[in-house]
């Protein structure tokens, strides 16, 4: 039978001749990576469960979250990984190398038709070359290192056809921000997206990387581009391998087939708080900024650096504005040096750091402070993601132009003189109460507990467990920080009791791949989370940790009140309000989910 591109790739890496959406299959993983964030936890899992490595040649570390080595806890975790790499004879791209997902492509670890997993939630960036990549939690990565395979649920596919010619002033970042405006954070939740059309033919590898890198922000499993001849040639040279690029069958079935006229696309920015809250840049024009950032896995490629340098050449960053530039890889950094771009950046007054994730990770340049307004080329601007300030997302051209003007603008509207600052505002951060964590270990198919209602959609992992705590590896310490970055629920941990059940809205757990966003609830003794839908990586992490996550399309259930007692049958999906006797239908546990739950975790 005909298959889509994602189905072709996953079938080729399974024992099945064909696969269909909803099926759960074991997938062989060609490249298995862990970062300095999460890497130490992977090592801990390997050691705690006495696991061996299936193939050290396919196993590697990439240190990109804290390539400056400036955080003591990260430094400890990095050294744990270095020692393990030496012991096991596995590859390591240390703090001088750059972003792991880019390295996987540029160093030939991944190529069209290949599969890869990483503790990076943006591993789906590999869709840019027609490969399958997924961010996963540390349990999944440990399992992949041990078995060479992981289980995966085949996603439904959506086909986007880009029609028309891309306007001259619309960059690849603008394309994906326009797509986010159309689809939001959850209308394509859980889909594998394939992008086609004549407009795609003009997109370079760097352009495709930018677009694919924001699949996570769209709620999608991956954005796949069918590999062009240029992509195949690039990957052949860099991998030194002979491979067969895979393509969807002409008569493949797509659950959604969407035509989009790109001629109406416009230069865009995402307003602070949500990547999908995008508007035409003119709506944000004139907004005073304190800082600007160019880099990340979304816009740290050579073409991004060239675009920024063309605008910054012979100009100065506005007084009081800090511009931070971080190339994606060390090879790009060296090319910038060779071509004179570093000199242009420094002459303009920018800070240039060594390659890495930078602003998206807590351990490198790009963070901001309370009240600070930043314009960034990153892919996320959730509250707290890049610090305590507010972050607009935009293209490298808009960010560079805005850094010169001192306010948000476009390259064709850079003023002769920059704006000046007025008196800045400041505020203080309140302290946090530390609570003693408790762990629930009962594994019955029926659970009961008091409900805690959080009527919010798109609660991301930074709201659940902020990235400033990511160096914590002891689960007992995690509970106290649960939701302390979610407005209105900062005291959640203080008011929680072991046995509570959380009820929330759509797309819960979107964002990062961090396992701590699950483990913090386990630490508090929370029994389960009921939501209308979950972020794909979050759902996997919860299942693998034997932590019940229940999908109920009517999770905003009528008649439920804060503090009501409910009973959940995990095998049937029946939810009963013990106070009112009302019942609700949720999705029952799959056989795989219940098996992992009964075992007490994926690695048990």
Structure notes:
There is one protein chain. With about 600 residues, the chain is α/β, with parallel strands linked by helices. The protein folds into three domains: about 5-265, 2-Layer Sandwich (Aconitase, domain 3), CATH 3.30.499.10; about 285-415, Aconitase, domain 3, CATH 3.30.499; about 445-600, Aconitase, domain 4, CATH 3.20.19.10. It contains 19 helices and 25 strands. It has a seven-stranded mixed sheet with strand order 22-21-20-19-23-24-25. The longest helix has 17 residues, at about 70-90. The two termini are about 35 Å apart.
Q: What key attributes describe this structure?
A:
single chain, 604 residues, alpha/beta, Aconitase, domain 3, Aconitase, domain 4, 3 domains, seven-stranded mixed sheet, five-stranded parallel sheet, 25 strands, globular
